[in-house]
Design brief:
The complex is a heterodimer. Chain A is mostly helical. Chain A has one domain. Chain A has a two-stranded antiparallel ribbon with strand order 1-2. By secondary structure, chain B is mostly helical. Chain B has one domain. Chain B is built from 21 helices and 2 strands. Chain B has a two-stranded antiparallel ribbon. The longest helix of chain B is centred in the first third of the chain and has 32 residues. Classes of the chains: A mainly alpha, B mainly alpha. Chains A and B meet through α18, α19 and α21 of A and β1, α5, α6 and α7 of B.
């Protein structure tokens, strides 16, 4: 019995084991050199990712509070991969940093919180996981200890996430008060459109919207992304956002399926607002991190369209899109991280003439941006296509037209960066940068993902088959 | 024949270019790839006619279907009919000529030939696609190479033009996308062209989504008032990219209007017929008069392309067999003719470093070959009998005259009248630049075309002459294809 539970929680356990290894190394007498430590961590994370594919068991534990299904295994694997890529990419930045073990301990604590959140079948468990994943992030945002912007970002993050947690808890308490249960399964049976329940749902929804930075709860995003170190920004924008979206649609589709008509309109409104706001603000940005912050807000708007389809296709398209988003966004962040660590330059105008000095890195960034813009043959095209197609299943033509128009706007600002890199000349371009083996490996993973995830139809079909189980 | 070869060869060529070193190797690989592709296209033509002659009357032959996303019923479905074969041949001609005129490309030559090859791969894929998803995929593949080609190697206000072109074409794609969604959810839950043509799409649905598809594809083929990317894009692009843009890229739109919009939604096409014809007539007249005002040779050809592509849409809009045959012929003819024209302008520009009409004159004396090419392209553009332009435009007029409604007769007369304007600007431009006295004495030392330029011009001129003198060679391929489509359209409209 106990062994079964341990196997069910294999993902969480693996992360915890790595966390403890690092803790022991930190406390131990013999200090490893930073380089060796980083190599060790990357190997451990690689092993963690590979083991994620084997010995998976399905079932539930803790009185059905914790569930483990093949879809959840896949979602956790996706997050593991993202952590591995981020870790490989941030080697350059971390190798000059004094607090490497602490960085990974906090990062992995947050990751295990996300795993719990994904597996949660109960609002209580969900909240626990959410807080476990959020609070360490504030410490991470402040990880460039000497930069004031970093401290500001952490402060903004902790205040806004505390606020959103408050709203979320209020929603949960209303739901509990009215229904007398916290379990998703029980909620789905008794949920109806009474005003009190709808109010509770709206609060819960607002909490989610905060975490995935949907408009009008997005105001923290740009400042935090800009202030935090690039590795943390990448983590926030890919892992954190991905995890919350996985949970979001599974909560909507299981617990709140009965009141679909009520939440469809919310999602419709919020996704339109999110897309338009994210896109229009992204046009004006000059800092690449802020630029990617707003572009990632716009991407959330697209994901919400897929979720609004309320179908297996919608869920599959969302997971599929997160995978693609992971590769494309991490590809972009990888380049930015490398440039930022070596030269400290983060503005779009600094990237003028980037192609002349660093052709390969320029292609990586360009392909990632094309994928974010949804241009074939990159995977982003397929991701966006399927999201919009599942959203169109509700026969809401205006939504699809608005989304299609937004794709034009987004192409404009992504192309602006491409134009700066390939066409503009610069007297003082970024010098030629050398990529280490590990960062190079991360780039290769990202580019292969960007190019092949969509073209190979099997990826989408695999996700779809897991959802249909 | 396995049609995938048409995409595989450009892909392999592109890979070869990546690994080639230096201009000589790069251009050799690109040239070899384009040449193999031309041979392959002729093989396709040969096998296609053989198949037809042996009594294979299927609408599309050499079909292949691969389940791409079975759960969404999205397939990679390819196959060709006569129209596609003609367009593939056109692409092969233009790409080969494009590679040849860029022979001396010094600046970032590897990237240049790589993007050009990728662009051609997109066009080949587009013309063999029989599933709207496949079609759309290849349509959009070409957007980024165009953006980079114009933005990096272009001249003048290149960044502005590149951005304008990319955004307007993306806008077209976005509209096409909405139309596709409409087709998918119209009941068939499929994006396959054949499946959808057989299942009936409700007329009210057709009326909603036809404009999306038609205007979306129309933007690619300079449908008035969405033609504004054409002059800027064409004139800022480097020679080979201009040739490709005007020669092939604009045809993607016309082909899509015919193959997807009109074929799948004939009732809506009949319903919106007055709008289509009005807009295309405006494009023809407006394009012709706007050309009169231009002083830059590339702008002259770009605006005249707007006018000539208006004939394509006019032919499609008339919804009868002759007119649609004319539209397809016009696509092929204009593709060849405008590519030749841009090649000639590029050769002139390379030598004189100007494209302004008033700064050049009497070039026939110093570069007789280039001048002849220039004048021949111009004559084809104004529809001289014996050249391809005459065959195509004549067929469009004959078809559109068959439509007895007064308004359409009027549109036909206006369109015919535009040929006079065409003659004015073509004769004026070629007379001023090629004949007469030499304006600038420095031009006396200029040299005539090199072998690669001669070969490029020869390839295109041969195609134009063959199509003009023996049009049956081309029409025999195209007509059976349009006939089947028209039967479907007429019986449903």
């Amino acid at each position: 019995m106990n062994g079964d539970i341990l196997m069910l929680m294999k993902f969480e356990l693996m992360v915890t084991i790595i966390l403890f290894i690092l803790l022991l190394l930190k406390l131990g007498k013999n200090k490893m050199s930073t380089g060796n430590l980083l190599n060790l961590v990357n190997i451990l994370l690689g092993v963690n990712f590979i083991v994620g594919f084997f010995f998976n068991t399905t079932g539930s534990a803790f009185g059905d509070m914790f569930l483990s299904t093949p879809l959840m295994h896949l979602e956790k694997n996706i997050l593991n991969l993202a952590i591995l890529i981020i870790s490989l990419q941030s080697r350059e930045w971390l190798s000059t940093h004094k607090h490497v073990p602490e960085f990974y301990i906090i990062l992995l604590a947050s990751l295990s919180g996300m795993f719990f959140m994904i597996s949660a079948q109960n609002l209580f468990m969900f909240y626990l996981g959410l807080e476990l994943s959020t609070i360490p992030l504030a410490a991470l945002a402040n990880f460039d200890l000497l930069k004031r912007k970093s401290g500001e970002a952490a402060m903004k993050f902790i205040i806004s996430s505390a606020f959103s947690s408050g709203i979320l808890l209020f929603g949960i308490s209303l739901l509990y008060g009215a229904l007398g249960t916290l379990s998703f399964e029980q909620i789905s049976i008794t949920m109806n459109s009474q005003p009190l329940l709808i109010l509770g749902f709206v609060m819960l929804f607002a909490g989610f919207a905060f975490k995935m930075s949907a408009v009008p709860f997005h105001l923290w995003t740009a400042d935090v992304y800009e202030g935090a170190p690039v590795a943390v920004t990448a983590y926030l924008s890919v892992v954190s956002k991905g995890a919350i979206i996985f949970v979001f649609f599974s909560v909507l589709f299981t617990a709140f399926e009965n009141i679909f008509i009520s939440w469809y309109n919310f999602i419709f409104l919020i996704s339109v607002l999110t897309m338009i706001t994210g896109n229009l603000f992204a046009i004006r940005q000059t800092n690449l991190k802020r630029f990617l912050a707003f572009s990632s807000i716009a991407q959330v708007g697209f994901i919400l369209i897929g979720i609004s389809g309320n179908s297996a296709e919608g869920a599959a398209a969302s997971v599929f899109f997160i995978v693609i988003y992971l590769f494309s966004n991490l590809g972009a962040f990888g380049v930015i991280s490398l440039v930022s660590a070596k030269t400290g330059k983060e503005s779009i105008s600094d990237y003028k003439g980037f192609y002349k000095t660093n052709p390969l890195l320029a292609w990586v960034l360009a392909l990632s941006l094309f994928s974010l813009a949804g241009i074939p043959p990159t995977a982003g095209f397929f991701g966006k296509f399927f999201l919009l197609m599942s959203g169109a299943g509700q026969n809401n033509t205006p939504l699809i037209v608005i989304a299609a128009l937004n794709m034009i706007i987004s192409l404009y600002y992504y192309l602006k960066v491409v134009k700066a890199m390939f066409m503009d000349s610069n007297e003082n371009p970024i010098q030629k940068l050398s990529t280490g083996f590990q960062a190079g490996l991360a780039f290769i993973i990202c580019i292969v993902g960007v190019l092949l995830t969509g073209l190979i139809g099997g990826c989408y079909e695999y996700i779809y088959s897991l959802i249909h189980l | 024949m396995n049609l995938n070869l048409l995409i595989v060869i450009p892909a392999v060529t592109a890979l070869g270019i990546v690994f080639a070193k230096g201009l000589k190797q790069v251009r050799f690989v690109a040239f070899a790839g384009a040449l193999i592709q031309l041979v392959l296209s002729f093989t396709l033509l040969f096998l296609f006619t053989q198949e037809r002659n042996s009594g294979n009357n299927e609408q599309f032959i050499f079909q292949a279907v691969y389940n791409w996303f079975p759960s969404l019923n999205i397939n990679y479905h390819i196959g060709v009919d006569g129209i596609s074969v003609a367009m593939i041949l056109l692409t092969a001609f233009v790409v080969l000529a494009g590679v040849l005129v860029s022979w001396k490309m010094e600046k970032m030559n590897k990237e240049f030939f790589l993007l050009l090859t990728l662009l051609s791969a997109g066009a080949y894929g587009y013309f063999i696609a029989l599933d709207l998803f496949t079609l759309f995929f290849f349509l959009e593949v070409a957007v980024i190479p165009k953006f980079l080609l114009i933005g990096i190697w272009g001249s003048g206000k290149k960044e502005y033009s590149a951005m304008k072109l990319a955004l307007m074409l993306m806008g077209g794609s976005a509209l096409v996308f909405v139309g596709m969604i409409g087709v998918y959810f119209s009941g068939s839950h499929s994006l396959d062209l054949i499946t959808n043509s057989q299942s009936y799409i409700d007329e009210s649905t057709q009326r909603i989504f036809f404009p999306f598809l038609f205007v979306g594809f129309g933007i690619f083929t300079a449908l008035f008032p969405f033609h504004t990317w054409v002059p800027d894009g064409h004139s800022s692009a480097p020679t080979a990219a201009s040739m490709f843009l005007a020669g092939i890229s604009m045809k993607l739109g016309g082909y899509g209007c015919l193959r997807a919009a009109v074929y799948l939604m004939p009732e809506a096409a009949a319903y919106y017929q007055p709008v289509i014809i009005t807009l295309s007539t405006i494009a023809i007249i407006y394009g012709a008069f706007a050309t009169l005002m231009q002083t830059d040779l590339k702008y002259i050809n770009a605006y005249s392309s707007v006018s000539h592509c208006g004939f394509v849409l006019l032919g499609i809009g008339m919804l009868n067999e002759t007119a649609i045959n004319g539209a397809v012929l016009q696509m092929v003819s204009h593709g060849l003719m405008t590519a030749l024209f841009f090649a000639a302008i590029g050769m002139v520009y390379d030598r004189t470093h100007t494209r302004m009409v008033k700064e050049i004159g009497g070039l026939l004396k110093v570069m007789p070959f280039i001048a002849t090419v220039f004048i021949l392209a111009g004559l084809c553009s104004l529809g001289l009998p014996g050249l391809s332009g005459f065959v195509a435009e004549m067929t469009v007029f004959m078809g559109s005259w068959q439509n007895p409604t007064t308004m359409y007769r009027f549109a036909t007369i206006l369109a015919c009248a535009s040929i006079v304007v065409t003659a004015v600007y073509i004769l004026r431009a070629s007379g001023k630049t090629m004949l007469g006295p030499i304006v600038n004495n420095e031009h006396l030392t200029l040299t005539d075309a090199r072998w690669n330029e001669r070969l490029a011009a020869f390839v295109l001129m041969a195609a134009i002459l063959i199509m003009g003198i023996a049009p049956f060679l081309v029409t025999d391929i195209i007509y059976p294809g349009t006939e089947v489509m028209m039967q479907h359209i007429v019986s449903n409209k």
